[in-house]
UniProtKB/TrEMBL annotation:
Domain AAA+ ATPase: 117-265
GO biological processes: protein quality control for misfolded or incompletely synthesized proteins
Species of provenance: Candidatus Chisholmbacteria bacterium RIFCSPHIGHO2_01_FULL_49_18
Protein name: AAA+ ATPase domain-containing protein
Matching Pfam families: AAA, Lon_lid
Highest taxon above the source species: Bacteria
Length: 350
C-alpha cells in the first residue's frame, strides 16, 4: 500500500516541476524519475534512495531556468548608490559607470538579453580596500539579485562544479547554489578572492573559471549533480583578488582588472566619522546622545596600531569603542561618554 505522505510529497514536487518550465529534454528525464519515486512509495515507502531522488528533483524544481530580474541601468542612480556606500574612489566609480554605460547601450541594441555579454570586472587591491562591498554596490545600483562565492582556501574544483549523484552525500557546487539563492538566471555573482585557492587545486579551479567566464562556454555550464546544462550567459560575474600573480593567464585574458587604491588617512577619517561610526553605534544600541568624540582624536583612532591599507582595522576599532560605551551606559556609569585625549586609551586596542 502506498505511503500517503510520500504520495502527497510526490504530487507537490510534480506541481513545482510543472511550474519551473524546464527544458523539454530535462522535463522528460524528470518524468522518468517521478515514475521511480512512485514505485518506491508504493513498494518500500521511505528509504535513503527515495530521499536522494526526491532531493535531486527538488533542486531541479528550485532553479530559475527561465526567471530573470528587471534591471535598472540608470547611471545617475548608480552614481548615487556608489556615493552613498563609498567615500572617494572616484576613478573606480567612473570606470564602473563606463562599464554600466556600455552594458546599457548593448542592451538597447540587443533587446534579447541573452545576446549581451558584459566584460568581467576584476577588482584588485589589498585587504580592506572595499573590493567586496563595491561588488554589492554594483548589484544594488543595477537592481539585480546578488550572490557571493568565497574562493579563499577552496580545495577542489568539485566545490564549484558539484559531485555526481552516484556518490553518497553528493550535492551541487557553489555556482548552482548561488543561482538558487539568487532565484534568477541573470544575477550578479561575486567570485571573491580568486587568487587565494589552495595551491594543489589551483589548476583545476582555474580551468572551471575559464569556462565560467567565457561567453562561448558558459551558456551550457554542467554541474555534475544537476547533470544538465544550465545557461549562465546572462549572469554578471565580478571577481576580486588581492593580486593577480596567482591567477592563470587564461583567466586573466577574460578579465578587466580595476585597481582598488589604498585609503589615505584623511579618507579614513571621513569614512570612520561619517560612515563607520553611525553603523557601529546602531549595532551597539547607542545613540548620538551617548557618545561624543573630539575631532582631534580621529588621526589616533585611524592609526591605533600603525598603518593599514584598508579600513577593516578601523572598523573593528570603532566597533570596539561603541561596545565599551554601551557597557558603561548599561552599567549606569554615565549616559553620555565624551572621548577626549585624556581617556582615549581606555577605548583603543592595546
Amino acid at each position: 500500500m502506498a505511503d500517503e505522505p510520500l504520495v502527497q510529497e510526490i504530487q507537490n514536487l510534480r506541481g513545482r516541476i510543472e511550474q519551473a518550465k524546464l527544458p523539454q529534454e530535462l522535463f522528460q528525464e524528470i518524468e522518468k524519475q517521478f515514475d521511480r519515486l512512485t514505485r518506491m512509495a508504493k513498494s518500500e515507502g521511505y528509504s535513503i534512495e527515495y530521499d536522494r531522488l526526491a532531493h535531486y528533483i527538488d533542486w531541479v524544481a528550485n532553479l530559475p531556468w527561465n526567471q530573470r530580474s528587471t534591471e535598472n541601468l540608470d547611471l545617475t542612480r548608480a552614481r548615487e548608490v556608489f556615493d552613498k556606500n563609498h567615500y572617494g574612489l572616484d576613478e573606480v566609480k567612473e570606470r564602473i559607470l563606463e562599464y554600466l554605460a556600455v552594458l546599457r547601450l548593448k542592451t538597447q541594441q540587443h533587446k534579447e538579453l541573452e545576446r549581451v555579454h558584459a566584460p568581467i570586472l576584476c577588482l584588485v587591491g589589498l585587504v580592506g580596500t572595499g573590493k567586496t562591498t563595491f561588488a554589492y554596490s554594483i548589484a544594488e545600483a543595477i537592481g539585480r539579485p546578488f550572490a557571493r562565492i568565497p574562493f579563499g582556501g577552496m580545495g577542489s574544483a568539485r566545490d564549484l562544479r558539484g559531485q555526481s549523484r552516484q556518490h553518497p552525500e553528493s550535492e551541487p557546487g557553489y555556482i548552482i547554489k548561488a543561482i538558487r539563492r539568487a532565484r534568477v538566471k541573470n544575477a550578479v555573482i561575486l567570485l571573491d578572492e580568486i587568487d587565494r585557492v589552495a595551491e594543489e587545486a589551483r589548476s583545476d579551479i582555474m580551468g572551471v573559471l575559464v569556462e565560467l567566464l567565457d561567453p562561448e562556454q558558459n551558456n551550457a555550464f554542467i554541474d555534475h549533480y544537476i547533470d544538465y546544462p544550465f545557461d549562465l550567459s546572462q549572469v554578471i560575474f565580478i571577481t576580486t583578488a588581492n593580486n593577480t600573480t596567482n591567477i592563470a593567464v587564461a583567466v586573466m585574458d577574460r578579465l578587466e582588472p580595476i585597481s582598488m587604491p589604498s585609503y589615505t588617512d584623511e579618507e579614513k577619517i571621513h569614512i570612520g566619522r561619517d560612515y563607520l561610526l553611525p553603523d557601529a553605534m546602531a549595532e551597539a544600541g547607542i545613540g548620538q546622545e551617548n557618545l561624543e568624540i573630539d575631532d582631534s582624536l580621529w588621526p589616533q583612532i585611524v592609526r591605533p596600531l600603525g598603518f593599514d591599507a584598508g579600513i577593516r582595522t578601523l572598523q573593528r576599532t570603532i566597533q570596539g569603542i561603541s561596545r565599551k560605551v554601551a557597557k558603561k551606559v548599561v552599567e549606569g556609569e554615565k549616559q553620555t561618554i565624551h572621548v577626549t585625549s585624556e581617556n582615549i586609551d581606555e577605548y583603543l586596542p592595546q
